[in-house]
From TrEMBL:
It is a multi-pass membrane protein. This is Branched-chain amino acid ABC transporter permease. The lineage of its organism: Bacteria, Pseudomonadati, Pseudomonadota, Alphaproteobacteria, Hyphomicrobiales. It is found in: Cell membrane. It comes from Xanthobacter dioxanivorans. GO terms for cellular component: plasma membrane. Keywords: Cell membrane, Membrane, Transmembrane, Transmembrane helix.
Length: 324
């Protein structure tokens, strides 16, 4: 990282730290800012397996839901802190990812995507049917603790959630950056470029993809706990949602720039802000109009620059320098 990049990163961090100070601590704007940070972290978690290992997963909602349900059930039945519940959820998600990846890690392309999609949908159906534990389609509420509590990850002021999600995003991004520059990351890069050639030079591609899937699942489960503590209520169709969790995580990474360190940051900012803006503008106009407009904007964005927002910024910067 050169001096210019360090200066830009430091400036960006200062702006992010100052951003919520003038916002209403209970307002809609701050809530959207929290969601941008949380979904950016989720996209970054997906980027480990989708960006570095080139395994397009459509089942990350399974890990997300495992994390949310584990911490919520432990808190509700045994008053266990969500921090401990998050660790338990991460363990379960890692185990589930290992069991899922053992037979599917050798799959590639749409075969792997369909296998992971089926796993996420299976958990959604099980959660809907297992009413005595999950509450079924009626959903489950996170037990409320008044005041601000770091131990229980519950805050009356959204500013606390903002800084919590910002810390999570920085942590996941730092981990992604460290993996990308490590020997493990170079092995993943090699198999992404050419899996057969990577095997010829001695890389165990099966093991590397398995490790990437487990690591991505563990991080996603932790973020599921944060989401549950932020929303206070969820149901199986929400937490295991294909469109709103699995596909959205992949879209954020792909639209921002798959494999890029700051790609999910740009992707989450674009997708969450556009989604919220379109829902606000067209949500009451006609049923489905907001989703249609949101989908149209995404298609337009992909047609303009399919390699992501970072590539688009590079193209615009190059044109600007030529004109200047």
């Amino acid at each position: 990282m050169n001096r210019r990049s360090i200066l830009l990163s430091a400036t960006g961090l200062v702006l992010l730290a100052l951003a919520p100070l003038n916002a209403d601590p209970q307002g809609y704007l701050l809530r959207v800012m929290c969601l941008v940070l949380l979904f950016a972290a989720m996209g970054q978690a997906w980027n480990i397996v989708g960006g570095l290992a080139a395994q397009v997963s459509l089942g990350h909602a399974a890990y997300f839901g495992i994390g949310a349900y584990t911490s919520t059930l432990l808190l509700g039945h045994f008053a266990v802190s969500p921090w401990i519940g998050a660790v338990s959820g991460m363990g379960l998600a890692g185990l589930f990812a290992a069991l899922l990846s053992l037979p599917t890690a050798r799959l590639t392309g749409h075969y792997f995507a369909l296998a992971t999609l089926a796993a996420g949908e299976a958990l959604r159906v099980i959660a809907n049917s297992w009413t005595s534990v999950t509450g079924g389609s009626s959903g489950i509420s996170v037990p409320y603790r008044p005041g601000n509590s770091i131990w229980y990850l519950q805050f009356a002021d959204l500013t606390w959630y903002y800084y919590l999600f910002l810390a999570a995003l920085l942590l996941v991004t730092g981990l992604f950056w460290a993996i990308k520059r490590s020997a493990f990351g170079y092995r993943l890069c090699a198999l992404r470029q050419n899996e057969e050639a990577a095997e010829v030079i001695g890389i165990d591609t099966y093991r590397e993809k398995l490790l990437a899937s487990i690591l991505s699942a563990v991080i996603t489960a932790f973020l599921g706990t944060l989401y549950a503590q932020f929303q206070f209520f969820f149901d199986p169709d929400t937490i295991f949602s294909l469109a709103n969790i699995s596909v959205k995580m992949a879209l954020i990474a792909i639209l921002g720039g798959v494999g890029a360190v700051f790609g999910p940051w740009a992707g989450a900012l674009f997708i969450v802000v556009v989604e919220e803006g379109v829902n606000t503008a067209f949500g009451s106009a006609a049923a489905g109009l907001s989703q249609f407009a949101y989908g149209g904007l995404l298609v337009l964005m992909v047609l303009i620059e399919p390699r992501g927002l970072f590539r688009l910024a590079e193209r615009l910067g190059l044109k600007f320098r030529r004109v200047a």
